[in-house]
Amino acid sequence: MIQPTLRALLSRRELQLRLESDDAALAPDALDAPLRWVHSSDLLDPTPFLAEELLLLTTGTQFAPDAGADVFTGYVTRLRTRGVRGLGFGTEVARDGIPRLLSEACAAAGMPLFEVPYRTPFIALARANAEAIAAQAYARRTWALDAQRAISLAALRPDGLGATVAELARQLGTWVGMFDAAGVLTQRHPIDGIGEQVLAHLTAEVGSVLRRGVRAGSTLDVDGARFTLQTLGRGGHLRGAIVIAGGDLDLEGRGVVTSVIAMAGLALEQNVGLGKARGALRAGLVHSLLTGDPTLARRVSRELWGALPSAPIVVAVAEVSHARADAAVDWLELAVTENRGTLFHGRGPDGLVVVVAAERRAVLDEFAELFEAAAGVSDPVGYAGFADAHAQAVTARRRSAPGRAADFAEVAAGGILGQLDTVEARALAESRLAPLREHDRTQGTQLLRTVRTWLEQDARIDAAAEALGIHRHTVRARVAQAQALLGVDLTSFPARAELWAALVTADR
Fold first, then answer.
1. Residue 445, SS3 per DSSP
2. Which residue in 297, 417, 278, 287 sits closest to 350, CA to CA?
3. Do 292 and 386 contact (CB within 8 A), yes or no?
């Protein structure tokens, strides 16, 4: 295909053009830069009427016979500054040959200069370049149609998305990657198209874009490499992103990419309905496991996703924000697909339930961190103890924080009173102890300290008096006063237990 360049014009024998400049002295791409148009002018300063990336033709009538070097230098400098790609001089019209000073000025400025003989009309160059532009446009449109046809056929293969990404990469001649809703690279072609360090940084950038949840088309600069990114799906419900190495695509290239994005987006959106049905089925299987009978769950899971994880298992219950819920489920589905029989998940009555073999406990930490989920993890159990494990996970989740998977064993180590470490419990404790704090503050007494020490000494007056270094009658009087202020009978164990719980909670 003839390219619209100065080199292409020079190579056309019917034009009989001759390059005056020294090819070796020109910039490497001086003769191969694309030309948008060919224009002619004999003005000494035609730049106000010129566009960039064009070829200028002149007969030299603007130059006086005695014009000095500064005239030619200024003329060429203006053309170069305006973005003119080359200068053609028509000989035998006003001059027999190319003026020496013009040749020297072009050589100094790196401006390609060539001779247009008298028998070659300027319009022939314009027409030849226009034909090359038209031929290039036709070739690109033909390529775009062929590329879209090839990509459409690839999409019909069993591995539709993967085949589509590979075909797009082949058609564009560059690296293409597809990321899922969680920002995980799921497809790429060629496999070793970019370095691992660049890929790691690119993955972080894509993850940041997807977490914002807003549709976007942008250019990313990663470690000196440029990438074009386009999200897939609707705003607030992004399904992933396609990333293409290189930031410059022409109209046809962008059209092909747009068709792939539409195709992939549609395929992913069509999976939403299937995903909802799959989610409902998974929720039913979780309910079945909670009843203590894993038979149904085992049978259905084996047919659809592979066997349930091998016992002993740990059960996690996670709380994921609404904005990240779809991405979290997509990540879990991918984990199930890539490692069949090692993970099961489904919606439960208290949050998202994830089941893994006990030795794969680390997967839950990765999940919680990636989706900023607050998760609780049970002790290892068999499937017969699934309901108890679920209860443990719910308890541990209440003690967890976003981005963390807390083990029930940690929570259990803190004892039952450790579960009172909540804002609500502390507020109740402070309210219960308020009469004693107020009396100590206004009267200068030590009722609160005395009651705490008395309870620590198993409600024994003599032991508390010894610990406090005061008389036992003083301890007895203070306990009686505290009892009156609180309005309780501290001779009963339930009242003492409640007061101790309040003291422990208030100190957290």
1. coil
2. 287
3. yes
Q: Quote the CA–CA distance of 42 and 57 in Å, as a whole number.
A: 8
209 touches 202 (CB < 8 A): no
pLDDT digits (tens, 9 = 90+) for 452-497: 888 888 888 888 888 888 988 888 888 888 888 888 888 888 888 7
Cite the beta strand spans of 266-417 per DSSP E: 313-319, 343-348, 351-357, 374-377, 404-407
User: CA separation (Å) from 357 to 289, 315, 341?
Assistant: 15, 9, 9
Give the highest mean pLDDT range of 21-25, 110-114, 413-417, 480-484: 110-114
Which residues have CB under 8 Å from 69's CB, separation 6+?
101, 104, 105
**Location of structure tokens 């060919």:** 38
**pLDDT 10s digits, 211-261:** 777 777 778 888 888 888 888 876 667 778 888 887 677 778 778 887 887
Strand partners, 404: 374
Half-sphere exposure of 322 (CA within 13 A, CB side): 1
Quick one: which of 238, 269, 255, 267 has its CA closest to 168? Answer: 255
How far apart CA 367 and CA 41 sit, in angstroms, is 68
DSSP structure class, residue 316: E
Neighbours of 60 (CB within 10 A): 17
Is residue 427 a contact partner of residue 347, using CB atoms and an 8 Å limit? no
CA gap 390, 386 in Å, rounded: 6
In the chain, DSSP finds a helix count (H) and a strand count (E) of: 17, 15
Calpha distance 353→444 (Å, rounded): 54
Rounded Cα distance between 456 and 19, Å, is: 104
Query: What is the b/e burial string over 155-188, where b = at least 16 CB atoms within 10 angstroms of the residue's CB?
Result: beeeeebbbbbbbbbbbbebbbbbbbbbbbbbbb
Residue 243 backbone dihedrals phi, psi, to 5 degrees:
-125, 135
CA distances from 426 to 1, 82, 252, 423, 454 (A): 80, 75, 65, 5, 22
d(CA 69, CA 83): 21
Written as six digits, the tokens of 139 are: 């070739």
Secondary structure (DSSP) of 2-44: --SBHHHHHT-GGG--EE-S-GGGS-TTTTTSB-SEEEE---S
SS3 491: coil
Give the single-character DSSP code of 378.
P
